[in-house]
Structure formats: C-alpha cells, structure tokens
Amino acid sequence: MGGMATAERKAQPARVDATRNRERIIAAAREAFVEHGPSVPLDAIAHRAGVGNATLYRHFADRNELVHVVASYSLARITEQADSALAEEPDAFEALRRFVHRAADERVGALCSLLYDGFDKNDANVVDARVRLEAAVTRLMDNARESGQLRPDVGIGDLMVAITQLTRPLAGTACAHVERYMHRHLQLFLDGLRAPARSELSGTAVTFEDFEPDRI
Amino acid sequence: MGGMATAERKAQPARVDATRNRERIIAAAREAFVEHGPSVPLDAIAHRAGVGNATLYRHFADRNELVHVVASYSLARITEQADSALAEEPDAFEALRRFVHRAADERVGALCSLLYDGFDKNDANVVDARVRLEAAVTRLMDNARESGQLRPDVGIGDLMVAITQLTRPLAGTACAHVERYMHRHLQLFLDGLRAPARSELSGTAVTFEDFEPDRI
DNA sequence: CGGGAAACGGGGAAAAGATCTCCGTTTCAC
DNA sequence: GTGAAACGGAGATCTTTTCCCCGTTTCCCG
Predict the structure, then answer these.
(1) Of A1, A176, B84, B194, which is most buried with the most CB atoms under 10 A?
(2) Spatial distance between the Cα atoms of B173 and B194, rounded to a whole number of angstroms
(3) Where is the HTH tetR-type domain (chains A, B) (predicted)?
(4) In this structure, what CATH number is given to the domain that contains residue B40?
(5) Cβ-nearest to A185 among B162, B180, B183
(6) Domain range for residue B160?
C-alpha cells in the first residue's frame, strides 16, 4: 500500500524537473523532521522545498510514504559512514569515534523520531538497511573492544541511544543549533566509553533487541 | 496576568477536594509534558489526572499558567537536590555525580522543553529559581574542578544540556522507558567528565549565557 | 519551433483536532 | 439539612492540517 506513486515514477523516464523537485522535497522533509519532529505539517515541508503543496502530494501518496523514503535515505547514509570508518581507519577506537561524529552529522536523532505510530518497521528496505547498520556498528564496537580500548560493559544499544539523544534538537524553541554542543558531548561520552572503565554501570549492556519487545 | 486563579484560591481556605485535584493536575501535567512535549492537549492532561477538563480550566486560566507552575515546581526540586548534594557529600565529584542522577530522576529534560514560545522567562519566580540552581550547580562543578577530579575544559552548560538530552523520552513511540538507559548513559558521560581528560574537545566550554542570545 | 502531455502553484473546501463554556449533578463545610 | 462551591461531560467554536480542483507553466519530442 502507498508505494504506487514511487512505482509509477520509475516506470516512465520522468521529467527532469519532476525528479529534481522530488529530491528537493526529500531534503526539505529531512530538515523539517529534524527541526520540528515527525508531525510537521506537510504544507510546511512543501514550502521549505520551494514547491506548491500539490507537488508534494503528487509525489508522495501520504505522510507515511514520505517518512519511509527519508528514513531509508538516512539509514543508508549512516551505514555508509560505518562501513567507510571500518575500511579506512586503522585504529579501532578512532574508527568508532569517526563513525559517531559522522552519524551525528547525519542526524540519527531526528531519524529515530520518525519511528512514529504509522511507521511500518517491517518494510523490506528498512529492515535490510537496519540489519546492515547493526552489523557494521557491531563490528566497530567489537574491534574497539578487542583492541582493549573500549570498556567491555557497554552494548551497541548504549551507543545508539546516546547518539540519538545527544543529536536531537534542543527542546527550547530558539536554540536549534545543537551542532554547537553535539560534538562536544559526543566526545565526552566517547571518553567515558574508553577502557579502563572509570566506574561501574548499573544494569546490563543495552542491545538492539531491547528496542523491540514485540519481536516474534 | 493569568495568576488570578491561583490568587483566588489562596484567599479562601479552599475545599480539600479542590486542592487535591489541583495537585493531581500538576502531577499529571508534569508526566504528560515529559511524555508528549509541551503542546500536549490540556484535555489529555485532565484525563490523565482523572478529572474533567472543566476542572483543569477552573484551576488554571490557560496553558501558560499551568506550565509556569509545573516549571517552578520542578526547578525548585532540582535545586534542592543540588543543595543537598553540596551539603551532604564530602567528595566533590561524588556530589556532582549524585546531583546528576537525582536531577535525571526529576526529569530536567522535560522541564527544559517547557520553555516554549509563550513562556515568560522573566517571571520573578522562575528567574529566581534558575539563578539559585545555576549558583548551586556552579559550586558543584567548581568544587569538583578544584579537587582535580573534573576536567577543566567543560562548563555548566555542557553538563546541563547533556543531562537534558539524555533524560528526554526516547523518540520512538513505544519505548518510553528511558529510565532503563538514562542512568547508564549519564554515568558514561560522567566518566568522560573526569580528569584527566582523555581527548581534546572542539569549541569552548558552554556557559549558561549561551542559551540566551537575546540578553540585554 | 510548436503541439500536447505532464507537472506546477495557489486558493480554498473538507476534516481533524484543540480549546473552552454551559449546565445539570455531586460533594463538601457548617 | 442546606447553600455554596466544585465537579464532569457534552458540544459549540476556533485553529490547524490535509488534500483536491483547475488555470497556468514547463518540458519533451517531432
């Protein structure tokens, strides 16, 4: 359901202005979601993209479809960052550090807020992308742990949740420039992740499964 | 403006059920703000408090008044935590640590999100409470810094923003139980705050003033 | 170039959602 | 027991968002 508009587009060559507008809308949507949350008015997204609202509705059947596309885009880009960090950084902890900061720039925090009510988490694309991301980040952490630089009592969930939270837009209205603080705080968090551990943590390492209580 | 409902109440003895409902509403509002943000429907707050919506409107002239009361309450309680940590903990870093975790339990994160558009930041009560909080936390940090346990390149703003962000409800719908992770992540962050610093931070220490660009 | 199909934008109707009031009923205090 | 105050729920009103309609513009291809 709802995937029609996309399918139709791919069937025909499509006009250049149409595809350009589509990209613009996606970019605008990403920004708008980051700034105002997942229920930002679609008209606002259209306005930000510099197109009429009818154009948005022409490209995306409903909010759901738009959200899915944006989420897939972002997931893919973050996974790329994880992969390239794995491939290019010789030092294990440095690779992890690089990934964290790059992921922050992609605004994972905002992405996570897209997992709203009507979101189909079992969409093939999304599931695939998430699995790939999980695999890459797990390797980043395993490497760092094995090299003795990452404290052993933290899980992938600890890292992902912290990134998510620290990269979200600040609550207060005006100060939307989290960027100023984001990287500082991520860096402090990363310093806390280093081995040897400077304190004992409550509870147990957070895993990916912890986020899906309703798993088969 | 808007303080009438409260004033009137205090003038007369007031009925016990009325004051009880008032407390219930404030508590419900705090929870609702924490969970759904500052623009949660007032009817939803009334429902959560187990009272009719009319009762809410009878006690609070408008959303603004309710927000102010909730904010003042929370600020006061957090300040208490800072003061008691200062008074009771002999070790400077331990005092800081204790304050951070207690503040988290009070959900500072949610409180911060109350600083929405219509909020009067210059309200005497609020300003006073904020100044007192700032003073207390500054002392906590100064003590820890002077004892050589806190890295010198972090400011009060760094700490407050991080607490705020890490204690906010998770973006996704279901997983509203941040509590499970919150304290772990705060602890990791605190470990990153310890001296000696394990890395260099970008930018400069964040102060309180950084949040008010429109200061006289 | 020029014709025709597709895409566009803006305005506004329809729907959804939130606010707040009215009023009959219940609860408290004396 | 009685009067005054507080209560709850229903719904009118106002705001916000969605989405459609249709006249105009832009692109593609011959």
Answers:
(1) B194
(2) 34
(3) 19-78
(4) 1.10.10.60
(5) B162
(6) 71-211
